[in-house]
Amino acid sequence: MSKPDSALLKKYQDSLSNAEMGYWELSLAEEVLKWDDGFKKLFDLKGDDYTGPLKSFLDKVHPEDQDGLKKYVNSVIEGKKDNRHLFRIVLPKNKIKHIRTCVYTNSKLRSKELLIGLSWDVTSEIILQEELSKAQKFTENILNSVPDPIFVKNEKHQWVYTNTEFERLLGKKREELIGKDDMAFFKKEFVEIYWARDQEVLLSNKPNENEEKIIDAWGRTRDILTKKTPLNIGENEKVLVGVIRDITDMKRIQDSLVEQSKMASLGEMAAEIAHEVNNPLMIIQGKAQLLQEKISNPNSDINAFRKDLELIVQNCVRIDKIIKSLKSISRKADLDPPENVSVLGLIDEAFEISKERFRKKRLNLFVVTDEKIDYTYRTRVRPSEVVQVLVNLLNNSYDAVSHQTSGWARINLSIVKEKYRVEVVDSGPEIEPEIINKMMEPFFTTKSTGKGTGLGLSVSKQIIQKYKGDFYFDKKNPNTCFVFTLPKI
Fold it and tell me: Which reaction does this chain catalyze (predicted)?
Protein backbone atom coordinates (compact mmCIF):
# COMPACT_ATOMS: atom_id res chain seq x y z
CA MET A 1 0.00 0.00 0.00
CA SER A 2 1.44 3.43 -0.93
CA LYS A 3 1.96 6.15 1.67
CA PRO A 4 -1.03 8.24 0.56
CA ASP A 5 -3.17 5.11 0.83
CA SER A 6 -1.82 4.47 4.33
CA ALA A 7 -2.53 8.05 5.37
CA LEU A 8 -6.04 7.81 3.95
CA LEU A 9 -6.63 4.54 5.82
CA LYS A 10 -5.40 6.14 9.05
CA LYS A 11 -7.84 9.06 8.60
CA TYR A 12 -10.62 6.63 7.89
CA GLN A 13 -9.88 4.60 11.02
CA ASP A 14 -9.59 7.76 13.14
CA SER A 15 -12.95 8.97 11.82
CA LEU A 16 -14.59 5.66 12.73
CA SER A 17 -13.05 5.73 16.19
CA ASN A 18 -14.15 9.33 16.84
CA ALA A 19 -17.65 8.38 15.74
CA GLU A 20 -17.52 5.47 18.21
CA MET A 21 -17.62 3.02 15.30
CA GLY A 22 -15.35 0.04 14.70
CA TYR A 23 -14.44 -2.20 11.79
CA TRP A 24 -13.92 -5.94 12.19
CA GLU A 25 -13.38 -9.18 10.24
CA LEU A 26 -14.34 -12.70 11.28
CA SER A 27 -12.80 -15.88 9.91
CA LEU A 28 -15.53 -18.50 10.20
CA ALA A 29 -13.16 -21.41 9.70
CA GLU A 30 -10.74 -20.31 12.41
CA GLU A 31 -13.33 -18.48 14.56
CA VAL A 32 -10.85 -15.63 14.86
CA LEU A 33 -11.86 -11.99 15.03
CA LYS A 34 -9.73 -9.04 13.84
CA TRP A 35 -10.52 -5.43 14.70
CA ASP A 36 -9.35 -1.85 14.38
CA ASP A 37 -8.83 0.93 16.99
CA GLY A 38 -12.44 1.99 16.82
CA PHE A 39 -13.67 -1.52 17.64
CA LYS A 40 -11.08 -1.85 20.38
CA LYS A 41 -12.28 1.38 22.00
CA LEU A 42 -15.93 0.46 21.52
CA PHE A 43 -15.58 -2.90 23.31
CA ASP A 44 -13.07 -1.66 25.88
CA LEU A 45 -10.41 -4.16 24.74
CA LYS A 46 -7.06 -3.91 26.57
CA GLY A 47 -3.53 -4.55 25.34
CA ASP A 48 -1.91 -4.15 21.93
CA ASP A 49 -3.62 -7.08 20.22
CA TYR A 50 -5.93 -6.51 17.25
CA THR A 51 -6.98 -10.11 16.93
CA GLY A 52 -8.49 -12.73 19.20
CA PRO A 53 -10.77 -15.75 19.47
CA LEU A 54 -14.45 -15.25 18.72
CA LYS A 55 -15.37 -16.68 22.12
CA SER A 56 -13.67 -13.85 24.01
CA PHE A 57 -15.82 -11.41 22.08
CA LEU A 58 -19.04 -13.36 22.62
CA ASP A 59 -18.35 -13.44 26.37
CA LYS A 60 -18.83 -9.67 26.40
CA VAL A 61 -22.27 -9.96 24.77
CA HIS A 62 -25.16 -9.84 27.22
CA PRO A 63 -26.32 -13.42 27.94
CA GLU A 64 -29.88 -12.58 26.86
CA ASP A 65 -28.64 -11.30 23.47
CA GLN A 66 -26.11 -14.03 22.51
CA ASP A 67 -28.58 -16.38 20.76
CA GLY A 68 -30.10 -13.49 18.83
CA LEU A 69 -26.68 -12.34 17.61
CA LYS A 70 -25.74 -15.85 16.45
CA LYS A 71 -29.05 -16.19 14.54
CA TYR A 72 -28.44 -12.83 12.91
CA VAL A 73 -24.93 -13.81 11.76
CA ASN A 74 -26.27 -17.10 10.37
CA SER A 75 -28.99 -15.25 8.46
CA VAL A 76 -26.34 -13.06 6.80
CA ILE A 77 -24.33 -16.14 5.84
CA GLU A 78 -27.52 -17.60 4.32
CA GLY A 79 -27.84 -14.50 2.17
CA LYS A 80 -30.72 -12.71 3.92
CA LYS A 81 -30.65 -8.92 3.55
CA ASP A 82 -31.58 -8.01 7.11
CA ASN A 83 -28.07 -6.70 7.69
CA ARG A 84 -28.46 -4.69 10.92
CA HIS A 85 -28.76 -6.01 14.44
CA LEU A 86 -28.94 -4.52 17.90
CA PHE A 87 -27.42 -6.16 20.97
CA ARG A 88 -25.93 -5.30 24.35
CA ILE A 89 -22.44 -5.82 25.72
CA VAL A 90 -21.46 -5.92 29.38
CA LEU A 91 -18.29 -4.01 30.30
CA PRO A 92 -16.41 -3.86 33.60
CA LYS A 93 -18.45 -2.64 36.59
CA ASN A 94 -21.55 -3.99 34.78
CA LYS A 95 -21.65 -1.03 32.42
CA ILE A 96 -24.08 -1.73 29.60
CA LYS A 97 -23.57 -0.54 26.03
CA HIS A 98 -26.09 -0.89 23.23
CA ILE A 99 -24.36 -1.84 19.97
CA ARG A 100 -25.77 -1.78 16.46
CA THR A 101 -23.82 -3.82 13.90
CA CYS A 102 -23.88 -4.42 10.14
CA VAL A 103 -22.45 -7.70 8.82
CA TYR A 104 -21.52 -8.48 5.23
CA THR A 105 -19.99 -11.43 3.41
CA ASN A 106 -16.90 -10.69 1.37
CA SER A 107 -18.15 -10.89 -2.22
CA LYS A 108 -14.59 -11.08 -3.61
CA LEU A 109 -14.14 -14.51 -2.04
CA ARG A 110 -15.70 -17.54 -3.67
CA SER A 111 -16.70 -18.92 -0.26
CA LYS A 112 -18.47 -17.16 2.59
CA GLU A 113 -15.76 -17.94 5.11
CA LEU A 114 -14.98 -14.29 5.87
CA LEU A 115 -17.45 -11.87 7.39
CA ILE A 116 -16.78 -8.16 7.65
CA GLY A 117 -18.74 -5.59 9.58
CA LEU A 118 -19.14 -2.24 11.26
CA SER A 119 -20.33 -1.76 14.84
CA TRP A 120 -21.24 1.47 16.63
CA ASP A 121 -22.49 2.69 19.99
CA VAL A 122 -26.21 3.59 20.07
CA THR A 123 -26.54 3.66 23.87
CA SER A 124 -27.60 7.34 23.95
CA GLU A 125 -30.19 6.71 21.24
CA ILE A 126 -31.62 3.68 23.07
CA ILE A 127 -31.73 5.52 26.40
CA LEU A 128 -33.53 8.42 24.70
CA GLN A 129 -36.02 6.01 23.13
CA GLU A 130 -36.61 4.35 26.49
CA GLU A 131 -37.13 7.71 28.18
CA LEU A 132 -39.50 8.73 25.40
CA SER A 133 -41.38 5.46 25.75
CA LYS A 134 -41.63 5.98 29.53
CA ALA A 135 -42.86 9.55 29.01
CA GLN A 136 -45.46 8.36 26.48
CA LYS A 137 -46.62 5.62 28.83
CA PHE A 138 -46.72 8.07 31.73
CA THR A 139 -48.77 10.54 29.66
CA GLU A 140 -51.04 7.73 28.50
CA ASN A 141 -51.62 6.61 32.10
CA ILE A 142 -52.44 10.17 33.16
CA LEU A 143 -54.90 10.66 30.28
CA ASN A 144 -56.53 7.31 31.02
CA SER A 145 -56.86 8.16 34.71
CA VAL A 146 -58.76 11.38 33.92
CA PRO A 147 -62.46 10.75 34.67
CA ASP A 148 -63.53 12.81 31.64
CA PRO A 149 -63.53 11.52 28.04
CA ILE A 150 -60.65 12.98 25.97
CA PHE A 151 -60.16 12.78 22.21
CA VAL A 152 -57.90 14.21 19.51
CA LYS A 153 -59.16 14.77 15.95
CA ASN A 154 -57.35 15.70 12.76
CA GLU A 155 -58.63 18.29 10.29
CA LYS A 156 -60.77 15.63 8.60
CA HIS A 157 -62.66 15.11 11.90
CA GLN A 158 -61.06 11.67 12.30
CA TRP A 159 -60.02 10.51 15.75
CA VAL A 160 -56.26 10.05 16.11
CA TYR A 161 -56.35 9.51 19.89
CA THR A 162 -58.97 8.55 22.48
CA ASN A 163 -58.61 7.81 26.18
CA THR A 164 -60.29 4.89 27.94
CA GLU A 165 -63.12 7.06 29.31
CA PHE A 166 -64.03 8.19 25.77
CA GLU A 167 -63.98 4.56 24.64
CA ARG A 168 -66.22 3.61 27.58
CA LEU A 169 -68.65 6.42 26.73
CA LEU A 170 -69.07 5.09 23.20
CA GLY A 171 -68.75 1.42 24.13
CA LYS A 172 -66.01 0.94 21.52
CA LYS A 173 -62.38 -0.18 21.58
CA ARG A 174 -59.69 2.24 20.49
CA GLU A 175 -58.92 0.32 17.31
CA GLU A 176 -62.59 0.68 16.33
CA LEU A 177 -62.38 4.47 16.72
CA ILE A 178 -58.97 5.54 15.40
CA GLY A 179 -59.25 6.74 11.79
CA LYS A 180 -63.06 6.94 11.99
CA ASP A 181 -65.15 10.10 12.30
CA ASP A 182 -68.33 11.03 14.19
CA MET A 183 -70.58 10.07 11.28
CA ALA A 184 -69.81 6.40 11.91
CA PHE A 185 -71.36 6.49 15.40
CA PHE A 186 -73.68 9.50 15.89
CA LYS A 187 -76.87 10.94 14.43
CA LYS A 188 -76.40 13.23 11.46
CA GLU A 189 -78.02 16.20 13.24
CA PHE A 190 -75.55 15.82 16.13
CA VAL A 191 -72.57 15.44 13.80
CA GLU A 192 -73.41 18.62 11.87
CA ILE A 193 -73.24 20.56 15.16
CA TYR A 194 -69.99 18.85 16.23
CA TRP A 195 -68.26 19.55 12.90
CA ALA A 196 -69.44 23.16 12.69
CA ARG A 197 -67.85 23.79 16.09
CA ASP A 198 -64.72 21.82 15.12
CA GLN A 199 -64.27 24.10 12.11
CA GLU A 200 -64.86 27.20 14.21
CA VAL A 201 -62.01 26.18 16.53
CA LEU A 202 -59.62 25.13 13.75
CA LEU A 203 -60.20 28.27 11.66
CA SER A 204 -60.12 30.77 14.54
CA ASN A 205 -57.23 28.97 16.29
CA LYS A 206 -59.02 29.71 19.56
CA PRO A 207 -60.50 27.29 22.12
CA ASN A 208 -64.26 26.92 22.36
CA GLU A 209 -66.62 25.52 24.98
CA ASN A 210 -70.15 24.42 24.16
CA GLU A 211 -73.02 22.40 25.53
CA GLU A 212 -73.86 19.50 23.23
CA LYS A 213 -75.76 16.24 23.30
CA ILE A 214 -74.44 12.73 22.76
CA ILE A 215 -75.91 9.23 22.75
CA ASP A 216 -73.81 6.94 24.94
CA ALA A 217 -73.10 3.21 24.68
CA TRP A 218 -76.36 2.42 26.50
CA GLY A 219 -78.50 4.49 24.10
CA ARG A 220 -79.06 7.31 26.57
CA THR A 221 -79.01 10.93 25.43
CA ARG A 222 -76.56 12.80 27.68
CA ASP A 223 -75.93 16.52 28.09
CA ILE A 224 -72.22 17.21 27.72
CA LEU A 225 -69.94 20.23 27.99
CA THR A 226 -67.18 19.95 25.38
CA LYS A 227 -64.07 22.11 25.42
CA LYS A 228 -62.19 22.02 22.12
CA THR A 229 -58.67 23.43 21.76
CA PRO A 230 -56.56 23.73 18.56
CA LEU A 231 -53.01 22.35 18.63
CA ASN A 232 -50.38 22.93 15.94
CA ILE A 233 -48.15 19.85 15.53
CA GLY A 234 -46.30 20.98 12.42
CA GLU A 235 -46.03 23.82 9.96
CA ASN A 236 -49.09 22.69 8.02
CA GLU A 237 -50.74 20.25 10.39
CA LYS A 238 -53.21 20.99 13.13
CA VAL A 239 -55.29 18.80 15.44
CA LEU A 240 -58.18 19.46 17.78
CA VAL A 241 -58.03 18.32 21.40
CA GLY A 242 -61.41 17.76 23.04
CA VAL A 243 -62.38 17.22 26.67
CA ILE A 244 -65.94 16.13 27.47
CA ARG A 245 -67.72 16.53 30.78
CA ASP A 246 -71.05 14.83 31.38
CA ILE A 247 -73.32 17.54 32.85
CA THR A 248 -76.59 15.62 32.69
CA ASP A 249 -76.92 15.32 36.47
CA MET A 250 -75.67 18.86 37.02
CA LYS A 251 -78.28 20.23 34.60
CA ARG A 252 -80.96 18.23 36.39
CA ILE A 253 -79.91 19.79 39.70
CA GLN A 254 -79.74 23.25 38.11
CA ASP A 255 -83.24 22.81 36.70
CA SER A 256 -84.43 21.79 40.15
CA LEU A 257 -82.84 24.90 41.66
CA VAL A 258 -84.47 27.04 38.98
CA GLU A 259 -87.87 25.57 39.84
CA GLN A 260 -87.29 26.10 43.57
CA SER A 261 -86.26 29.70 42.98
CA LYS A 262 -89.26 30.25 40.72
CA MET A 263 -91.73 28.85 43.22
CA ALA A 264 -90.09 30.85 46.01
CA SER A 265 -90.54 34.04 43.98
CA LEU A 266 -94.18 33.27 43.32
CA GLY A 267 -94.68 32.35 46.96
CA GLU A 268 -93.35 35.73 48.07
CA MET A 269 -95.90 37.45 45.81
CA ALA A 270 -98.84 35.11 46.43
CA ALA A 271 -100.84 37.55 48.59
CA GLU A 272 -100.34 40.47 46.19
CA ILE A 273 -101.20 38.33 43.16
CA ALA A 274 -104.39 37.12 44.85
CA HIS A 275 -105.28 40.75 45.58
CA GLU A 276 -104.48 41.71 41.97
CA VAL A 277 -106.91 39.08 40.67
CA ASN A 278 -109.51 39.76 43.36
CA ASN A 279 -109.88 43.47 42.52
CA PRO A 280 -111.15 43.00 38.95
CA LEU A 281 -113.25 40.03 40.11
CA MET A 282 -115.02 42.29 42.63
CA ILE A 283 -115.68 44.82 39.90
CA ILE A 284 -117.06 42.12 37.60
CA GLN A 285 -119.24 40.75 40.40
CA GLY A 286 -120.59 44.20 41.28
CA LYS A 287 -121.36 45.14 37.69
CA ALA A 288 -122.99 41.77 37.04
CA GLN A 289 -125.35 42.33 40.02
CA LEU A 290 -126.19 45.84 38.75
CA LEU A 291 -126.92 44.47 35.30
CA GLN A 292 -129.32 41.93 36.82
CA GLU A 293 -131.18 44.76 38.53
CA LYS A 294 -131.22 46.91 35.36
CA ILE A 295 -132.54 44.06 33.23
CA SER A 296 -135.66 43.85 35.43
CA ASN A 297 -136.20 47.65 34.99
CA PRO A 298 -137.88 48.34 31.62
CA ASN A 299 -136.77 52.01 31.74
CA SER A 300 -133.02 51.22 31.97
CA ASP A 301 -130.68 53.18 29.67
CA ILE A 302 -129.06 51.00 26.96
CA ASN A 303 -125.88 53.13 27.07
CA ALA A 304 -125.47 52.35 30.78
CA PHE A 305 -125.67 48.66 29.88
CA ARG A 306 -122.92 49.15 27.28
CA LYS A 307 -120.57 50.93 29.72
CA ASP A 308 -121.04 48.26 32.38
CA LEU A 309 -120.31 45.50 29.86
CA GLU A 310 -117.18 47.29 28.62
CA LEU A 311 -115.92 47.52 32.20
CA ILE A 312 -116.53 43.80 32.70
CA VAL A 313 -114.58 42.99 29.49
CA GLN A 314 -111.67 45.24 30.55
CA ASN A 315 -111.40 43.50 33.90
CA CYS A 316 -111.62 40.07 32.28
CA VAL A 317 -108.71 41.08 30.01
CA ARG A 318 -106.83 42.26 33.08
CA ILE A 319 -107.31 38.88 34.81
CA ASP A 320 -106.34 37.07 31.62
CA LYS A 321 -103.05 39.00 31.42
CA ILE A 322 -102.25 38.19 35.05
CA ILE A 323 -102.97 34.49 34.56
CA LYS A 324 -100.90 34.33 31.34
CA SER A 325 -97.95 35.98 33.08
CA LEU A 326 -98.21 33.54 35.98
CA LYS A 327 -98.44 30.59 33.58
CA SER A 328 -95.37 31.87 31.74
CA ILE A 329 -93.14 32.12 34.79
CA SER A 330 -94.42 28.93 36.45
CA ARG A 331 -94.06 26.81 33.29
CA LYS A 332 -91.23 24.28 33.33
CA ALA A 333 -88.76 25.98 30.98
CA ASP A 334 -87.02 22.87 29.64
CA LEU A 335 -90.30 21.79 28.05
CA ASP A 336 -90.05 24.72 25.64
CA PRO A 337 -87.48 25.29 22.91
CA PRO A 338 -85.83 28.73 22.70
CA GLU A 339 -87.84 31.13 20.57
CA ASN A 340 -87.50 34.60 19.08
CA VAL A 341 -89.37 36.89 21.47
CA SER A 342 -89.83 40.60 22.03
CA VAL A 343 -87.57 41.94 24.78
CA LEU A 344 -90.22 44.54 25.66
CA GLY A 345 -92.80 41.75 25.85
CA LEU A 346 -90.67 39.91 28.42
CA ILE A 347 -90.36 43.09 30.48
CA ASP A 348 -94.14 43.62 30.26
CA GLU A 349 -94.81 40.13 31.66
CA ALA A 350 -92.45 40.63 34.61
CA PHE A 351 -93.93 44.11 35.20
CA GLU A 352 -97.46 42.69 35.18
CA ILE A 353 -96.56 40.07 37.81
CA SER A 354 -94.70 42.48 40.08
CA LYS A 355 -96.50 45.81 39.89
CA GLU A 356 -99.26 45.08 42.43
CA ARG A 357 -96.72 44.59 45.23
CA PHE A 358 -95.23 48.01 44.54
CA ARG A 359 -98.62 49.73 44.09
CA LYS A 360 -99.96 48.36 47.36
CA LYS A 361 -97.03 49.97 49.24
CA ARG A 362 -97.28 53.16 47.16
CA LEU A 363 -93.88 52.48 45.63
CA ASN A 364 -93.05 53.51 42.08
CA LEU A 365 -92.22 50.86 39.49
CA PHE A 366 -91.61 51.99 35.92
CA VAL A 367 -89.85 51.11 32.68
CA VAL A 368 -87.50 53.33 30.64
CA THR A 369 -86.40 52.30 27.13
CA ASP A 370 -84.47 53.80 24.25
CA GLU A 371 -86.90 55.55 21.92
CA LYS A 372 -85.92 53.37 18.96
CA ILE A 373 -86.73 50.08 20.75
CA ASP A 374 -90.23 48.71 20.11
CA TYR A 375 -91.90 45.30 20.20
CA THR A 376 -90.18 44.20 16.98
CA TYR A 377 -86.79 44.06 18.74
CA ARG A 378 -86.21 40.42 19.58
CA THR A 379 -83.87 37.98 21.29
CA ARG A 380 -83.75 34.17 21.24
CA VAL A 381 -84.44 32.66 24.68
CA ARG A 382 -86.91 30.58 26.64
CA PRO A 383 -89.34 33.36 27.66
CA SER A 384 -90.24 31.97 31.08
CA GLU A 385 -86.57 31.89 32.13
CA VAL A 386 -85.89 35.54 31.35
CA VAL A 387 -89.19 36.62 32.94
CA GLN A 388 -88.06 34.69 36.02
CA VAL A 389 -84.75 36.63 36.07
CA LEU A 390 -86.62 39.94 35.94
CA VAL A 391 -89.09 38.88 38.64
CA ASN A 392 -86.21 37.73 40.88
CA LEU A 393 -84.52 41.12 40.55
CA LEU A 394 -87.79 43.03 41.07
CA ASN A 395 -88.50 40.95 44.20
CA ASN A 396 -85.09 41.95 45.55
CA SER A 397 -85.80 45.59 44.72
CA TYR A 398 -89.16 45.40 46.46
CA ASP A 399 -87.58 44.00 49.62
CA ALA A 400 -84.94 46.74 49.53
CA VAL A 401 -87.36 49.69 49.12
CA SER A 402 -90.54 48.43 50.82
CA HIS A 403 -89.88 50.40 54.02
CA GLN A 404 -89.11 53.68 52.23
CA THR A 405 -91.76 56.38 52.01
CA SER A 406 -90.87 57.25 48.43
CA GLY A 407 -89.08 54.13 47.27
CA TRP A 408 -88.85 53.23 43.60
CA ALA A 409 -87.56 50.62 41.17
CA ARG A 410 -86.88 51.04 37.47
CA ILE A 411 -86.20 48.74 34.50
CA ASN A 412 -83.93 50.34 31.89
CA LEU A 413 -83.64 48.84 28.40
CA SER A 414 -81.00 49.91 25.88
CA ILE A 415 -78.80 48.49 23.12
CA VAL A 416 -75.02 48.38 23.59
CA LYS A 417 -72.69 46.74 21.04
CA GLU A 418 -75.39 44.61 19.41
CA LYS A 419 -76.66 43.36 22.77
CA TYR A 420 -79.67 44.31 24.82
CA ARG A 421 -78.66 45.83 28.15
CA VAL A 422 -81.31 45.43 30.85
CA GLU A 423 -80.84 47.23 34.16
CA VAL A 424 -82.95 46.79 37.29
CA VAL A 425 -82.24 49.83 39.46
CA ASP A 426 -83.75 50.78 42.82
CA SER A 427 -83.50 53.33 45.61
CA GLY A 428 -82.57 50.73 48.22
CA PRO A 429 -79.74 51.20 50.74
CA GLU A 430 -76.12 50.77 49.70
CA ILE A 431 -74.91 47.15 49.65
CA GLU A 432 -71.82 46.42 51.74
CA PRO A 433 -68.68 45.35 49.78
CA GLU A 434 -68.41 42.01 51.64
CA ILE A 435 -72.00 41.19 50.64
CA ILE A 436 -71.35 42.18 47.00
CA ASN A 437 -68.52 39.63 46.89
CA LYS A 438 -70.76 36.79 48.12
CA MET A 439 -74.27 37.56 46.89
CA MET A 440 -73.94 35.59 43.61
CA GLU A 441 -73.12 32.40 45.52
CA PRO A 442 -75.90 29.77 45.78
CA PHE A 443 -77.89 29.86 49.06
CA PHE A 444 -76.30 33.13 50.24
CA THR A 445 -79.00 35.51 51.49
CA THR A 446 -79.31 38.51 53.80
CA LYS A 447 -83.07 38.05 54.16
CA SER A 448 -84.63 36.68 57.33
CA THR A 449 -85.45 32.98 57.61
CA GLY A 450 -88.35 32.01 55.40
CA LYS A 451 -88.15 35.13 53.21
CA GLY A 452 -85.48 34.05 50.75
CA THR A 453 -83.80 30.91 49.41
CA GLY A 454 -80.49 32.51 48.42
CA LEU A 455 -80.94 31.06 44.93
CA GLY A 456 -82.37 34.02 43.03
CA LEU A 457 -79.16 35.73 41.91
CA SER A 458 -77.11 32.56 41.29
CA VAL A 459 -79.91 30.98 39.25
CA SER A 460 -80.48 34.23 37.34
CA LYS A 461 -76.79 34.39 36.46
CA GLN A 462 -76.82 30.78 35.20
CA ILE A 463 -79.86 31.48 33.02
CA ILE A 464 -78.37 34.59 31.40
CA GLN A 465 -74.95 33.00 30.84
CA LYS A 466 -76.67 30.10 29.11
CA TYR A 467 -77.74 32.57 26.41
CA LYS A 468 -74.20 34.01 26.04
CA GLY A 469 -75.14 37.05 28.11
CA ASP A 470 -73.51 38.75 31.09
CA PHE A 471 -75.02 39.15 34.55
CA TYR A 472 -73.41 41.41 37.16
CA PHE A 473 -73.80 44.07 39.83
CA ASP A 474 -72.91 47.54 38.55
CA LYS A 475 -70.64 49.06 41.21
CA LYS A 476 -70.34 52.35 39.30
CA ASN A 477 -74.04 53.16 39.47
CA PRO A 478 -74.92 55.48 42.41
CA ASN A 479 -78.01 53.34 43.08
CA THR A 480 -78.37 49.59 43.51
CA CYS A 481 -78.19 48.29 39.96
CA PHE A 482 -78.13 44.76 38.53
CA VAL A 483 -77.37 44.40 34.82
CA PHE A 484 -77.81 41.58 32.35
CA THR A 485 -77.33 41.42 28.60
CA LEU A 486 -78.94 39.30 25.88
CA PRO A 487 -77.93 38.82 22.25
CA LYS A 488 -79.79 40.90 19.66
CA ILE A 489 -81.19 39.08 16.62
Answer: ATP + protein L-histidine = ADP + protein N-phospho-L-histidine
